[in-house]
Amino acid sequence: MIKYINKNFNKNLNKNFNKNLNVYKEILIFFLPVVLLCFGYSEGLKKTFKNGYVNKCPLNNTVFKLCYQAFEICKKYFSLWPISHLLIYILATLRFHKLNQIILLFFLGIIWEIIETYGSGLDRWFTSKKDYIDVKKIKLSKNVKMQYTTYWTGTFSDIVFNTIGMIIGILIIKFNFFPVFIKNLLNTIFIICLVCGAFYINFYPIYIIAIILSLKYTFIY
Questions:
Q1: Could you tell me which of 75, 43, 72 has the C-alpha nearest to residue 160?
Q2: How far apart are CA 148 and CA 21, in angstroms?
Q3: In the 8-state DSSP scheme, what is residue 138?
Q4: What is the Cα–Cα distance from 5 to 23, expressed in whole angstroms?
């Protein structure tokens, strides 16, 4: 009897482990096209606008001001980049809303900010010496209000926006506030933005490949 119980317990344990492992893989696959989009968009901007590419990024234009006494966020102007963090995390939470999945989403956000902190090094690695642009030497136009002076910048505020996105996603699920409609709306918004981005920058293969992958694994209906 005990042997039978242990056998069933181990069987269920392995089944749950495999199920969770598959979900974790789905989460990583969900974010993979997003990572490729960021790299592809960065390289496309550089290819199109050369040294002025930081100025030319529409997502970097400041659009609102947020002020509260916490870390560097007080009295700071924000661009559309934090909004993109907020929306992608709402979308991710609508798909992956169990506690263990949300914890993984949170830590993936932190890992991404660490990667962005050392993004200049990655940028140098991905770009040939001939085409490499040292973003630290680029001066922003005085007439342009930008949140970031470099494309790759890890910030605590992005983690805050990720967290707010997860909270909004959880509330949408909990109160059943049109989750399917909101998910489809966000998918549509992202797809439109990606297509516009493809026309805004010169052709860059990684960006196009990332769009195709995102339609299959990330922005699905």
A1: 72
A2: 37
A3: P
A4: 27
CB of 53 closer than 8 Å to CB of 151: yes
Q: In the chain, how long is the greatest CA-to-CA distance?
A: 78
Rounded CA gap, 216 and 158, in Å? 26
- Single pTM value for the model: 0.84
- Over residues 118-151, the pLDDT tens digits come to 765 555 555 545 444 444 444 444 555 777 777 7
Cβ count near 204 (within 10 Å): 20
CB count within 10 Å of CB 216 equals: 10
Residue 113 and residue 69: Cα distance in Å, rounded?
Answer: 21
Residue with tokens 């962005």: 116
Q: Which residue type is seen at 197?
A: G
Joined together, the tokens standing for residue 202 give 């010169």
Instruction: Render pLDDT for 77-88 as a digit per residue (tens, 0 to 9).
Output: 788 999 999 999
